[in-house]
Design brief:
The complex is a heterodimer. By secondary structure, chain A is of the alpha+beta class. Chain A folds into 2 domains: 74 residues, Roll (Ubiquitin-like (UB roll)); 66 residues, [2Fe-2S]-binding domain (DNA polymerase, domain 1, Orthogonal Bundle). Chain A is built from 5 helices and 5 strands, in the order ββαβββαααα. In chain A, strands 2-1-5-3-4 form a 5-stranded mixed β-sheet, sandwiched between helices. The model of chain A has no long low-confidence stretch (mean pLDDT 96). Chain B folds into 3 domains: 156 residues, 2-Layer Sandwich (Aldehyde Oxidoreductase, domain 4), CATH 3.30.365.10; 170 residues, Aldehyde oxidase/xanthine dehydrogenase, a/b hammerhead (Aldehyde Oxidoreductase, domain 3), CATH 3.90.1170.50; 322 residues, Aldehyde Oxidoreductase, domain 4 (2-Layer Sandwich). Chain B is 29% helix and 25% strand. Chain B has a 7-stranded mixed β-sheet with strand order 3-5-1-12-9-10-11, with helices on both faces. Chain B has a 6-stranded mixed β-sheet with strand order 7-15-14-13-8-31. A 4-stranded mixed β-sheet of chain B has the order 18-26-27-30, sandwiched between helices. In chain B, a hairpin with a 5-residue loop joins strand 19 and strand 20. The longest helix of chain B has 28 residues. The N terminus of chain B is likely disordered. Classes of the chains: A alpha+beta, B alpha+beta. The interface between A and B is large, with 57 and 66 residues.
Chain lengths: 162, 773
């Protein structure tokens, strides 16, 4: 890199959306940049300057994590799941289906992070009450919906047979 | 107006699957392999002459491909043809802290950042003004030489004899209400991808714009390029709310960089830069005076609004005109006087934001109505009902009103909230408040007056039987493409999934005036219906040929064509498409919509602003809890009813109402931009306090359908009308709970506590005075 000393890189092995892979990753690379630029998974969004909005939420070993303040090299040996992994077998996952049908998404920019945060919640607590949903997703900002239909979407998904 | 096929609960967005799977590509997600990284150098001072910019060291840095300054673009730009006073990169002078001065395109972000550090800047500092008051002082330096007193526009509108109006009142009261500046804070940060091909001399621009056509125009102007050599494409857009209605400096800068570098350049602004780019709702001080009879009839309204507009014109003239024009049209007020002042200050320029111009003045108005109702011992619902309009009518400032559902909105929320049973009977610390608001369904006179229709939609039908609607109307999350698909499918009586919508590509789709002033449903919806009807005529003629009858004997229902009262079996859509293509080939049907002259407002100066085909109307009740010890306010529940004429997609209408109400509550409760000597102190989503899910109330939505005679299926707008009511309804709820009047937004805890302390002080003084006398 011209103009600045290049950071050192190391080979990192991690499981991305169910597949193990190895990449040379710079020590200072953020997980979100690794996902978007190296792995080409642009479903994970950047909405702020670091840890403010939740748009970059992915699951790291089932735990919702803001990828924009997570170093990629810290994910060695871990399982990372992004929005791209949820639909399978030609079917939307129950949260995706509910967000689509109940209009839990408008502009859609916060949606991948919101759905991943909700997915983390439902794995931990399959039948959350409204207060739990509000608490669990309070780190994910949405500017379109007023959250009304997002909460409805999460409740619908929780009630659905997965 | 029949629409039997529409599911009355509404349909999911036609692009919803892309959004929930992460497949939707927003500007930053586009293929930018090989693209250079663009970065902007911003002014460190609020007001200064540019003495010297030396970019030689930056240019010499390895990996830097282009460096540009104000010298690279000598054309001012702006959204209003009469007020283009801004350059994409400052020339000679900077007028706010953070204004773009220079830009670089480099091989990577680190190099671009390093190059910005190497640009040498010599500035001569000038006095800076951060309030409308200081900027208007007689000895203030002028931000723009031709604007005396730093007033961009003063508006003086008077309809009727104001003195007579107040003389007819039993009660005349006045209030001065301050609303802080707020920001759109759409979750997608600004970004642009410009690709200049030196071999063909063509520019392809992909950006977050809500109005691709304005962007196209300004790119041609600023780059001195022929319009036909530019293509503007709309990717998925992560919200707008008005932030992207004007062409933004970074968009032109990205294109200038791409041409200078003869390459593709990706510019991604940080969240802080998005706040600096701003163009949102200005800080507004509103002095409002109302006359009311004992039974709550409004006799006259006098209003003065001062908007702290920031450093450049932008939409400012329209904003200050809207503030006055939309004093009309909600209630029957015979006499209205308005004085508005849009003031230049050394802060990021303000612009259009959801409820453009109308929101802060409506807030002040409704707050005063509530206070006067209390003073007269009247129920706030009764006061509104005493002042209802009767459609069709025209307002004193000559706005056309053909449908008016406010009365039903009032009934619905009064009933749903249990107002009559509960008002005055809530436990301590809890209060109920209500208010109303309205908004235009599109500006009836476009900003760029060209004589063209206000909207055009094309429909392409080919051998595959797929119906493709082509529209320039950008879907920015509000669901406009779904609305177009529904309008076409309903008119042709086809299943929704046979219709595909392509939106926002200047090489393919018709020009559109874009996503602003809630114009798309009314105007583009009508154009889509017109196009579908024209296509239907073509298909009926083809069916008539095939059935060997005259076209007037053919009917089409559910995609099947048959002879009226005939015995022949009906012909399916696919057969008729094939018949229609014989000797013709691909069919293109066009539809247009034009607002008639009587919709375009009064003849007085500025009379076009506020004019519309129809207003949406909203009534809203807020229930709030206030902690008198800490001043913390929380909203427990909102009931809202909106008259959107007819809900083409009820699901999307609900979503728009909920979002707008919530955005108003954010402005009421916590949102506020703050500057320290021009430096934004709010420029992150932590410091700029958008309500989170944990502190957002349930919102119960009621749709009222007044069926506008000119709207598509009777529809009007649904996205903006309810916003303004949520702020004064909350203030009324606080007054109901604590008996204090709050004059400033947002109602942060310290302001609530201050109001309580002030009331205690006044009560004490009153009792001392009484004791003394």
């Amino acid at each position: 890199m011209p103009g600045a000393p290049a950071p050192s890189k190391r080979i990192v092995r991690l499981r991305l959306n169910g597949r193990w892979r190895e990449d040379a990753i710079a020590d200072n690379a953020l997980l979100v940049d690794y996902l978007r630029e190296t792995a080409g998974l642009t479903g994970t969004k950047v909405g702020c300057d670091g840890g403010e909005c939740g748009a970059c939420t992915v699951l790291v070993d089932d735990v919702p994590t803001p990828a924009c303040i997570t170093l990629a090299v810290r994910c060695e040996g871990r399982s990372i799941e992004t929005i791209e992994s949820l639909a399978s077998g030609g079917r939307l996952n129950r949260l995706q289906r509910a967000f689509h049908e109940k209009l839990g998404t408008q502009c859609g920019f916060c949606t991948p992070g919101m759905i991943m945060a909700a997915e983390g919640l439902l794995r931990r607590e399959p039948h959350p009450g409204e207060a739990e949903i509000r608490q669990a997703l309070s780190g994910n900002l949405c500017r379109c919906t007023g959250y009304v239909k997002i909460i409805e979407s999460v409740r619908t998904a929780a009630d659905a047979e997965s | 107006m029949t629409s039997p096929g529409m599911k009355r609960r509404g349909v999911p967005l036609i692009d919803g699957v892309e959004k929930v799977t992460g497949r939707a590509r927003y500007t930053a997600d586009l293929d930018h392999a090989g693209a250079l990284v663009g970065r902007i150098l911003r002014s460190p001072l609020s007001h200064a002459e540019i003495v010297r910019i030396d970019v030689s060291r930056a240019r010499a840095l390895e990996g830097v491909v282009a460096v540009i300054t104000g010298d690279d673009c000598r054309h001012p730009y702006g959204v209003l043809p009469v007020a283009m006073n801004e350059y994409p990169l400052a020339r000679d002078r900077v007028r706010y802290r953070g204004e773009p001065i220079a830009a670089v395109a480099a091989v990577d972000a680190a190099t671009a950042a390093r190059a910005l550090e190497l640009i040498e800047l010599t500035l001569h500092e000038l006095p800076a003004y951060y309030t409308a008051e200081t900027a208007r002082a007689p000895d203030a330096v002028l931000l723009h030489e031709n604007k005396v007193g730093n007033v961009e526009r003063a508006v003086h509108h008077s309809f009727g004899d104001i003195a007579q109006g107040f003389a007819a009142a039993d009660l005349v009261r006045e209030a001065t209400i301050d609303c802080a500046e707020v920001n759109h804070a759409q979750i997608e940060p600004h970004a642009a991808l410009a690709d200049f091909d030196p071999l063909t001399g063509r520019l392809t621009m992909q950006s977050v714009s809500q109005v691709g056509y304005y962007l196209h125009l300004m790119l041609a102007r600023c780059l001195d390029m022929d319009e036909s050599r530019i293509r503007v494409i709309k990717p998925f857009i992560g919200g707008g709310f008005g932030a992207r209605v004007e062409v933004l400096n970074f968009e032109i800068v990205t294109a200038l960089l791409a041409r200078a570098a003869q390459a593709k350049v990706l510019m991604e602004l940080t969240r802080e830069e998005c706040f600096i780019t701003h163009r949102a709702r200005p800080q507004t001080t509103t002095r409002i005076k109302l006359g009311m009879t004992r039974d709550g009839r409004m006799t006259a309204c006098e209003c003065e609004a001062v908007q702290r507009g920031g450093a450049y014109a932008g939409y400012g003239i329209v904003t200050i005109l809207y503030a006055g024009a939309l004093l009309h049209g909600l209630y029957d007020i015979p006499i209205v006087k308005y004085d508005g002042y849009r003031v230049y200050t050394n802060l990021p320029p303000c612009g259009a934001m959801r409820g453009h111009g109308a929101v802060n003045v409506r807030h002040a108005f409704e707050v005063l109505v509530d206070r006067m109702a209390r003073e007269l011992g009247l129920d706030p619902f009764a006061v509104r009902r005493a002042n209802l309009l009767r459609a069709p009518t025209r307002t004193p400032n000559d706005l056309m009103i053909n449908s008016y559902g406010l009365g039903e909105c009032l009934d619905r929320v009064e009933r749903a909230s249990g107002w009559r049973e509960r008002i005055g009977k809530l436990p301590p610390g809890k209060g109920l408040g209500m208010a109303c608001s309205h908004y235009v369904s599109g500006a009836a006179k476009p900003i760029h007056w060209t004589g063209e229709p206000h909207a055009v939609v094309n429909i392409k039908l080919d051998w595959d039987g797929g119906v493709t609607a082509l529209t320039g109307a950008p879907d920015i999350g509000q669901g406009s493409s779904t609305m177009v698909a529904l309008a076409v499918a309903e008119t042709l009586e086809l299943p929704l999934d046979r219709v595909r919508v392509i939106a926002g590509d200047s090489a393919i789709t018709p020009k559109d005036n874009g996503a602003y002033s809630s114009r798309i449903t009314f105007m583009v919806g009508n154009a889509a219906i017109d196009a579908a009807r024209n296509l239907r005529t073509i298909l009926i003629e083809a069916a008539a040929r095939k059935l060997s009858v005259a076209p007037e004997f053919v009917e089409c229902h559910g995609g099947m064509f048959r002879v009226i009262n005939g015995t022949q079996p009906p012909l399916p859509f696919a057969d008729i498409v094939k018949a229609a293509l014989v000797n013709e080939g691909t069919i293109t049907a066009k539809g247009t919509f034009t607002c008639p002259p009587e919709a375009q407002g009064g003849k007085h100066k500025g009379g076009a602003v506020g004019s519309t085909m129809g207003f949406s109307y909203a009534a809203l009740v807020v229930e709030a809890s206030i902690d008198a010890a800490t001043g913390a306010v929380s909203v427990d529940k909102v009931w809202v009813a909106l008259d959107c004429g007819y809900a083409i997609n009820p699901l999307a209408v609900e979503g728009q109402i909920e979002g707008s109400v919530w955005m108003g509550l954010g402005q009421a409760l916590s949102e506020e931009t703050r500057y320290l000597e021009g430096l934004p102190a709010h420029a992150s989503l932590l410091e700029y306090r958008v309500p989170t899910m944990a502190e957002s109330p349930p919102i119960e939505t009621h749709i009222v359908e007044s069926i506008d005679p000119l709207g598509p299926f009777g529809a009007k707008e649904a996205s903006e009308g309810a916003l303004a009511a949520s702020m004064p309804a909350l203030i009324a709820a606080i007054a109901n709970a604590l008996g204090v009047d709050i004059d400033r937004l947002p109602v942060t805890p310290d302001r609530v506590v201050e109001a309580l302390v002030e009331r205690r002080r006044r009560t004490r003084l009153d009792s001392l005075r009484k004791a003394a006398s």
